[in-house]
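Suppose a colleague, Dr. K., hands you the sequence of a protein chain of 82 amino acids and asks what its three-dimensional shape might be. Before reaching for any lab equipment, you can write down a predicted structure in token form. Begin with the sequence itself:
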Amino acid sequence: MMQKPIWTSILLMGICALPCCQTAQNASRLNQSALYDPPMVSLKKGAVYHFVEGDLPGNGQFFHSDYSYQQAFLLGLKGPRN
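The predicted structure, expressed as tokens, is then:
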């Protein structure tokens, strides 16, 4: 009966030692990337936004990230009410 918990503990300690299970040295950079990929972005009316592709005047448009768009498509969610 004591053998099973011991082997389970050893297995868990072995898995935790794997490099893929350890935190990254530059984890702060990974956390900052979430600031640049919000689920939805709204453009203010009258503001001009500069992109590599060109300037875009804001008219209150909403843009979804790829992940939130896929989730909305899969779950059949509706967009925000204006």
